[in-house]
Amino acid sequence: xxxxxxxxxxxxxxxxxxxxxxxxxxxxxxxxxxxxxxxxxxxxxxxxxxxxxxxxxxxxxxxxxxxxxxxxxxxxxxxxxxxxxxxxxxxxxxxxxxxxxxxxxxxxxxxxxxxxxxxxxxxxxxxxxxxxxxxxxxxxxxxxxxxxxxxxxxxxxxxxxxxxxxxxxxxxxxxxxxxxxxxxxxxxxxxxxxxxxxxxxxxxxxxxxxxxxxxxxxxxxxxxxxxxxxxxxxxxxxxxxxxxxxxxxxxxxxxxxxxxxxxxxxxxxxxxxxxxxxxxxxxxxxxxxxxxxxxxxxxxxxxxxxxxxxxxxxxxxxxxxx
Length: 322
What we know:
This protein has helices spanning about 5-10, 60-75, 110-115, 120-140, 195-210, 225-230, 240-250, 255-265, 275-285, 290-320; strands spanning about 15-20, 25-35, 40-45, 50-55, 85-90, 95-105, 105-110, 140, 150-155, 160, 170. The protein is α+β, with helices and mostly antiparallel strands.
């Protein structure tokens, strides 16, 4: 929660023009997009294009987030976070504030998108998300505060992107930011150590949240509450082994979890036992062998193309009939 002093200092009305102290670039504020513990994000106009501008009085937090975004840009093939343009300072009264300018990712939040387009999109989007998380983890980071509010589905490509990197943390440290419903510490399912399994637990909770958009509180009477929720939701039952593995912390690789989801979606059931993380590691080694990797990638591409084509056909049919 942002403190009242920071909130008042970072409050900018639509139409406000701010000029960078060092680079001298000017930005016209369009509207506020959101506010968090470390600052406020605005939609702004810069050189004829729309950008997202985050402003704060916390220089260390802003510098850390900029370093994360720079790291993202070095991850080949990753489109998880927004592209960073530059950072600067601005003077407001007697106070110097820090800000950075990044790509404005236009689209729809994860839950409203799923509600509008249908639950069948959940698996497709989570497969994309797990691909990006795998690359992020390989580069030494976890996303941390992974939740639907931080996930945007772009148009017209239907690509899932993350819009808030404030919780991104180096692997091995303590998670910087979290939201209780998506935090394994809250559910007593593990620590808040920054490791891939922390993100994968959150992915499972995002999945569950798609079917329980109002969310629910922890029930101290049941240590298996989340698994009971999965077993009681018919759309999640086919994926219960995957969800159990993510909730229990057995998955240590986003790619392994993704492969298992894809197999189930294609009509196959994983035979792997997730009782220990070692089994996941052994599978990861096998999965990276050249033949399996090529076959899996090709099958997955065909599978996703078929799904998207079917969805597009259904969309056209609805327009014509309607």
